[in-house]
Amino acid sequence: NKFIFVAGNHDFFSPISDKVNSLDTYIQDWVPDAVIVSRECWIDGDDIYIPWYWMNDPEKFNTLDLNPYHRIFTHCDCKDFAWGKIPVNAVLYSGHIHQCKHYQNSLSSNPQSILYNLSTPYSLDYGDSNDLDKGFWVINPDDTNPILYRNEKSIRYRTFVNEQVLDIDDYEGSVERGDNFRVFVDEDNRYKIEYAEAINKIINDIKYPTIITVNNSILANGESVDSIDITSMLMNMVPDDLKDIFNIVVNEVNENPNR
Question: 172-181: long-range contacts (C-beta < 8 A, 24 or more apart)?
Answer without folding.
Answer: 174/205, 174/206, 175/205, 175/206, 175/207, 177/153, 178/207, 178/208, 179/155, 179/206, 180/126, 180/155, 180/156, 180/206, 180/208, 180/209, 180/210, 181/206, 181/208, 181/209, 181/210
